[in-house]
Give the backbone structure.
Amino acid sequence: MQHDSQGYWSATLGLLTKILIIWFLVSFGAGILFAPMLNGIHLGGYPLGFWFAQQGSIYIFIVLIFYYKKKMDDIDRRFDVHED
Amino acid sequence: MDLQTTIYLVVGASFALYIGIAIWARAGSTSEFYAAGGNVNPVMNGMATAADWMSAASFISMAGLISNMGYGGGLFLMGWTGGYVLLAMLLAPYLRKFGKFTVPQFIGDRFYSKSASTVAVLCLLVASLTYIIGQMTGVGVAFSRFLGVSSDMGIYIGMAIVFAYAVFGGMKGITYTQVAQYIVLILAYTIPAIFISLQLTGNPIPQLGLGSSLTGHEASLLSKLDSVVTDLGFGKYTTSLPGSTLNMFVYTLSLMIGTAGLPHVIMRFFTVPKVKDARSSAGWALVFIAILYTTAPAVAAMAKMNLVRTITPGVVMQDTDPYAAESAIQYEARPDWMKRWEVTGLLKFEDKNGDGRIQYYNDKTTNAEAKAKMDAAGWKGNELTVNADIIVLANPEIALLPDWVIALVAAGGLAAALSTAAGLLMAISSAISHDLVKGVFAPDISEKGELMTGKIAMAVSIIVAGYLGLNPPGFAAGTVALAFGIAASSLFPAIMMGIFSKKMNKEGAMAGMLSGLFITLFYVFAHKGLFFIKGTEYLDVIGGANSFFGITPEAFGAVGALVNFIVAFAVDKVTKEPPEHIQHMVEAVRVPRGAKAVDGAH
């Protein structure tokens, strides 16, 4: 590989780390560990911790995947390793 | 027209639709059948993946379990969706670039060893077979209600139909059939939820209804539910934990990494046209899965509400005292749906205090205040047992919805259970006939012989799964969770290390997979019996139930995965580095450019 494969891989890992932190915070963080605290706050009739565990984390997961796809396409192009 | 006839008609029509589309699509293009949707756009592909993924566990069983577990049920919701984030980022694009067809093929090539691929086949078989046991439980529930027979009889009939369905399996490979299945399934799930949400809160969107006020009340639905179930001695709905916070944490993690390690899910991303598509199709799949998964908590909470409303009619809407003598309905005046489910044996009534009324509550409650009131009311124990797996199917009946809605739900449940069971059976049969028999034991087996082996493997797995399904290790979703734990502890770490660690060698990977699988099975079998056979539990060996920090067997996969990683890295340190060309291969897998069409097809 004559391209900067080291740079490409570290850019990829950087993006993965960033997304995994958010992934962890919304599910294991807001949905489980901090849920008792967040339940004091209400979102409509939902206690917030309960909302994250049964609704919110799922919506954020979807956003995360599409964000990843977009950013990854950018990285592919920047390091000139994209398909076609 | 009576209800039963409507059900036969709707279920029959849905199957006619699938078969019709299969015939139409096959005539349209033969190549698509083999390319497994190679030219289908990512949105359609996502829908098909969603249909493939959502099984009896998601459709029939999950909301029922959430209904009983309350807040803690969120572990299924987060676990079975959060795994898609891992799948999309950590595995799918790289496995697509690698360009092989099955997980054992990847493991075998990456770890340059036939033995590694055999170990992967073993892990795959254990996980898939456990998964099918859960499916058979769901199939039994669906068929028992559909045909009005006992749940055991439902399983026998289900076994025969699943076998026919799997052998006629070509129809599964066609994306448009699965798209149709998805549409039936999602309509069957959401339409009753919309009706019920309207009845209870006046809001037609279940996701919002769950966060709204109860019709004619100031109080929100959830806070009312909290107080109603607490009065009956159950845990507070919005905060009740499955054991402990730690258990919920590892349970969720197990399901997440299990999702990313289950072979029949991963396989779908091997066959998309480009690496780019592998990334986005996981996203689209999750969109379509999320429609059901965000509706499920509303179904769960509202079903609980409606169940209480059925048995003690005034308690929810008119704030009647639940302990008053006249509050509970008389058994003789029970609604028709209860009679229908009594036939299946999944709903039972026993008049313990002889007052002819139904007392439904938690008689093992630790809530002293509620307990005192129950004793004062002369209650002699809970009298109504409702199997959690019937909640979703019975839900529209409980809410007294029109017959066609009840029939639609039956059609959806059957579609979910049959399609996933058939998909898994095909994964098992190809693993045995292709990866194991042809790959290892008898390389020069004829194509006909390979096909025959596959069919025999399918028949044997159905019989085993059906037998174990008669005495299942848990509710459908719980059994399926065990399968995820097994995949999480064995396959996920090996695939991950194969991509993210250039230096991981075959000794490390094999030792990791075997130790992860072994320790998880050891813990699971201690609770559920050796190979899930009742009566062979050995809880005293491990020091009682959930003895490892209170972690339940369903949640143990995450611990198994940790053991897998640790053992793999330790063994890797003391054995030889992988050869140069393997390290180059890993580097090549990491970049998208140069992805070729998949080879090594069956």
